[in-house]
């Protein structure tokens, strides 16, 4: 265990497992509803479904592509027990209003900060504002050990449950602290521990995290500066609200239509540049028919799924390579 913003942090075998731990720790009655955005990876919904809960999908904001905090209250029913805001692309959701709504209705908050390491909202690290939060160290994240994650426990009421579920349903963690003479099976659980070799691989990157984040910022800022002349005409650029500090996990553009997005993607691929779309909205996926109770249309989510294009962004991306990407996109629109 380590700490983030004074909160206990436990490494896990993946960000998916961290989400499963977080939802399991709430110990909600089967059939309870959990509100989350549709514009996220399947792991967010699976963590809900795997313990017999119902995901309720809410639309996202057009600017940050985060869950629209103004739509949460109208989605609350007598069965709602929790909210999972997902911090997209390393930019924080509007956690102030989300936490206020959660408090008003007695809901628990699990932050999916899989993409959020080193990012913050009003000066507080993403993942540390709700009852529980998670990080991911998957190979696509800013720092990685191939697979790996972490769970942040901000609400002390859930420390014991997290420790037990993470250690195969036993009190082995307490045993290792010499708090008990032996450890026994107490509850549900699995082996959610991160292996020592993967943890050591991750630790080396943690030592360089400031430099990694700065390198990503420089490349993000270059894209933004170069595409400013196209913003509002041919495409829309990412938005980072003033109260948020980003970790520059992604750089994406939003095109005017799916057709233009797909043609630009093909145009770049023909020039040896790999750019791709992102999430397929969960509410339109086949599994949603089996597991979700949501019925509302989610137009902004659908638009993002059809028009978003991610561009290459990593610390070792060279300026001449980045310029070639920028020039190709400008050529497409010229």
- Overall body shape: globular
Physical arrangement of strands within the biggest beta sheet: 1-2-10-9-6-5-3-4
Mean pLDDT: 96
Derived from helix and strand composition plus strand pairing, the structural class reads alpha/beta
What this model shows, in words?
It is a single chain. The chain has 334 residues and is an alpha/beta fold. It has an eight-stranded mixed beta sheet with strand order 1-2-10-9-6-5-3-4, sandwiched between helices. A three-stranded antiparallel beta sheet has the order 8-7-12, with no helix packed on it. Strands 11-13-14 form a three-stranded antiparallel beta sheet. The mean pLDDT is 96.
Features:
alpha/beta; 16% strand; eight-stranded mixed beta sheet; globular; 334 residues; 14 strands; 11 helices; three-stranded antiparallel beta sheet; 35% helix
SSE diagram, text form:
Layout lengths: L1 E3 L2 E6 L2 H12 L6 E5 L4 H8 L4 E5 L21 E4 L11 H11 L2 E5 L7 E2 L2 E2 L6 E5 L12 E5 L5 H8 L5 H5 L19 H11 L2 H19 L7 E2 L7 E2 L5 E5 L2 H13 L15 H6 L7 H9 E4 L7 H15 L1
Helix pairs in contact: 1-2, 1-4, 7-11
């Amino acid at each position: 265990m380590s700490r983030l913003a004074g909160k206990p942090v436990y490494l896990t075998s993946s960000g998916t497992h961290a989400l499963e731990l977080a939802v399991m720790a709430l110990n909600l009655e089967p059939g309870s509803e959990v509100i989350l955005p549709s514009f996220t990876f399947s792991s967010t919904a699976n963590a809900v479904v795997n313990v017999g809960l119902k995901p309720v999908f809410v639309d996202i904001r057009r600017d940050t592509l985060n869950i629209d905090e103004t739509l949460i209250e109208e989605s609350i029913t007598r069965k709602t027990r929790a909210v999972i805001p997902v911090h997209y692309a390393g930019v924080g959701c509007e956690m102030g209003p989300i936490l206020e709504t959660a408090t008003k209705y007695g809901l628990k908050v699990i932050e999916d900060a899989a993409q959020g390491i080193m990012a913050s909202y009003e000066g507080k690290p993403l993942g540390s504002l709700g009852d529980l939060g998670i990080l991911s160290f998957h190979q696509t994240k800013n720092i990685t050990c191939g697979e790996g994650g972490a769970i942040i426990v901000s609400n002390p009421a859930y420390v014991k449950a997290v420790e037990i579920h993470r250690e195969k349903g036993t009190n082995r963690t307490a045993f290792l602290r010499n708090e008990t003479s032996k450890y026994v099976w107490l509850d549900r659980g699995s082996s959610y521990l991160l292996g020592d070799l993967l943890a050591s691989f991750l630790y080396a990157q943690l030592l360089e995290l400031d430099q990694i984040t700065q390198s990503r910022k420089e490349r993000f800022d270059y894209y933004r500066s170069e595409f400013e002349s196209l913003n509002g005409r041919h495409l829309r650029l990412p938005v980072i609200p003033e109260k948020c500090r980003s970790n520059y996990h992604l750089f994406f553009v939003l095109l005017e239509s799916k057709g233009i997005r797909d043609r630009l993607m093909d145009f770049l691929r023909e020039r040896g540049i790999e750019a791709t779309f992102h999430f397929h909205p969960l509410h339109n996926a086949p599994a949603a028919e089996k597991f979700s109770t949501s019925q509302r249309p989610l137009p902004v989510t659908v638009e993002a799924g059809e028009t978003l294009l991610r561009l290459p962004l990593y610390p070792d991306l060279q300026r001449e390579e980045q310029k070639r990407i920028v020039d190709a996109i400008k050529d497409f629109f010229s």
